[in-house]
Specification:
single chain; 2 domains; Fumarate Reductase Iron-sulfur Protein, Chain B, domain 2; 9 helices; alpha+beta; binds FE2/S2 (inorganic) cluster; 276 residues; two-stranded antiparallel sheet; Ubiquitin-like (UB roll); five-stranded mixed beta sheet; elongated
Length: 276
C-alpha cells in the first residue's frame, strides 16, 4: 500500500506535501521565529503559501520548510493526533498542528506560535525538560504493595495477571488517554504565573494511577500532590480540559485529588496511626 497521496496535496509519509491543485488562492502564516543566543527577541515572519483546502497546519508548515525556508524548526511525528509532538498556538489557541486545518482560518492570516509558558528552544520548539521532571515526580506507573521505589519503574509490580472489572477500568480510563502534548500547560494561567506548579497533565496522570485498582502508590505520590505546588495550586479555571485534544479532563482529576488529600488529612486526626 502506498502512503503517497493524490492531487489533494496531503503529504506522503515523509511529511512533504504532494502535488497540489493550483487554486490560485493563497493564505498568510505569521510564524514566530526565534533562536536564543542568535536573535535579540522573538519576531513574527510572514509566509504567503498556496491555500489548499485539505491541508492541515502541519502540511502548511511542511510546505514552508520544503519550499520557502528550510531553517524553520517545529516538532511532529505521527500526523494522527497520537504522539503529542505537534502542539502549537494558532491565533492564540493551543492546538495540535496535525488535526487543525488551514481552512478553519481562511482567508484570514494565521499566527503560529510555540506553546505558551515554556522557554523556546528554537522557533516553534519548546523546552520540555521541566515538564518531564514534573511527570517523573508523580511516579506515573503502577506500584505494587510494598514495591521498592528505588528500583526501575518496570519492576514496581510483579509479573502476572491483574484482572479488572469494567467499573474499575472506568475509574481511570479517560485519564490514560493523555498524550503529553502539553496544550494544557500552555492554556493554564496558574502554570503561567507559577512555573513550579506541577500542572494539569502530570497531576492528571498521578490521578490516573491513584484511581487504578491495581496500584498501591497513593502514599508515594501524596507528598508531590499535596505540597504547595501540587493540586492546591490549581484554581479550577478549567481551560486545560477545554483544549485537550483527547477529551481528558485534567481539571476534574485535580479536584478529585484535592478531595482525596483533604479526606486523608481529616482522617489523620481521628484514625489510629497506620489505620485505613
Ligand atoms: S504529529 Fe503526532 S500528535 Fe500531531
Amino acid at each position: 500500500m502506498s502512503n503517497a497521496t493524490s492531487a489533494s496535496g496531503t503529504p506522503d509519509n515523509t511529511g512533504k506535501p504532494a502535488a497540489r491543485p493550483d487554486s490560485g488562492k493563497t493564505i498568510t502564516l505569521e510564524i514566530l521565529r526565534y533562536i536564543p543566543g542568535q536573535h535579540d527577541k522573538p519576531e513574527f515572519q510572514p509566509f504567503q503559501i498556496p491555500y489548499v483546502e485539505d491541508w492541515s497546519m502541519l502540511d502548511a508548515l511542511a510546505y514552508i520548510k520544503d519550499e520557502l525556508d528550510s531553517s524553520l524548526a517545529y516538532r511532529w511525528s505521527c500526523r494522527m493526533a497520537v504522539c503529542g509532538s505537534c502542539g502549537m498556538v494558532f491565533n492564540g489557541e493551543p492546538k495540535l498542528a496535525c488535526e487543525t486545518f488551514v481552512r478553519e482560518y481562511y482567508p484570514q492570516p494565521i499566527r503560529v506560535e510555540p506553546l505558551g509558558n515554556f522557554a523556546i528552544e528554537r522557533d516553534l520548539i519548546i523546552d520540555q525538560a521541566p515538564f518531564l521532571a514534573k511527570l517523573e515526580s508523580v511516579k506515573p506507573f503502577i506500584i505494587d504493595a510494598g514495591a521498592d521505589l528505588k528500583k526501575p519503574a518496570n519492576e514496581t509490580i510483579q509479573a502476572g495477571e491483574y484482572k479488572q472489572t469494567p467499573l474499575q477500568l472506568a475509574m481511570f480510563k479517560q485519564y490514560s488517554m493523555c498524550i503529553n502534548c502539553l496544550l494544557c500547560y500552555s492554556a493554564c494561567p496558574q502554570f503561567g504565573l507559577n512555573p513550579q506548579f506541577t500542572g494539569p497533565a502530570a497531576l492528571s496522570l498521578a490521578h490516573r494511577y491513584n484511581a487504578d485498582s491495581r496500584d498501591h502508590g497513593n502514599e508515594a505520590r501524596a507528598s508531590v500532590l499535596n505540597e504547595k505546588d501540587g493540586v492546591w495550586s490549581c484554581t479550577f479555571v478549567g481551560y486545560c480540559s477545554e483544549v485537550c485534544p483527547k477529551s481528558v479532563d485534567p481539571a476534574s482529576a485535580i479536584q478529585l485529588e484535592k478531595v482525596s488529600g483533604a479526606t486523608d488529612w481529616a482522617l489523620s486526626f481521628i484514625m489510629p496511626k497506620g489505620a485505613k
